[in-house]
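From the pipeline queue, job 12 of 40. The input is one protein chain; the requested action is below.

Action: predict structure.
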Amino acid sequence: MKEIKTIFVYGLALALILVPMPSLAAQEVAPNLNDTKAHSITSPAKPGPDAGATLPAKTITLSNGVVVPFDADVRTSSEEEAFRKELSLLVTLDQLTSARMKEMGLSEPAETLPKIAVTAKPSELLLKVAEPAAIGCRVTKPSSSAGDMNVSRPQIVKSGTKLYAYARYNWKNAPFSECPPNQAQIGGPDGLAITFNRSVTNKGVSFVGCNSYNKCGKTGWLETNNHYGAGWAFQDWGYASLYGYSPTYKGTLTYTLTTSSTKCLQAFAKYGHSWNSTKLTGFSIGKSSIGISWNTSSSLWQKSSQAGSYRC
């Protein structure tokens, strides 16, 4: 009997040795199998940005150092005015390149007619020149003619839900004087206007003028403004070519708009020039029409542009 008991104990011990036992590590990763949450084992989350974090809004730094939002639809009225002036400045200086348009979030629709070629300008600074001594003060050829003026067809570009229509002019053979700056007016105010072939929502208007040395700034005043277009008036002065002519040697009027219509949008521009005692007294702007009012019917001329188009 004692021998049988010994054999039984020995066999039981051998069976316990041969049965595989879970390791301590296995016990740790598979605790209570009745807990369904313990069945799924996932890798630790990799470090990264907080899903709830808000990324900083994209911005544009303008040439004067002002920073405005890239998104046209969130800009404030003052930010939009600064952006519009920057656009007017770049157009006037022939510096609105494809790269700069991309930086500013502007796109030119394929339907828009080709614009004038972009040419680089060396500087925006007025060259330092000495004022001539003992010169007479007289204006040479104040009248000029419409053929001495170039009024480019308006261009229309898009950013967000907004459209920017700009009209540009430049003198080809400007009236000039032998006078120091601001001593010889060429008649009364001149003016530049833009109009559309249908009513739009007006979101603001700006104008920038430059001399031939690309010294630029805001000049004149918004004379007429409605849902069909706008007109800007400014005094032109007789400057010697030594001074880069006047600060209205060339300029750009930019009109910001929105429209829910997908129909063809056309824009037209017109420039009015006067001399002697004639002066511009106002604009009348309607559908595809620009009228310029003067105090007299002589000593003046007007120059119109070809049509600029969008979705036509």
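Job complete. The longest strand covers residues 162-171.
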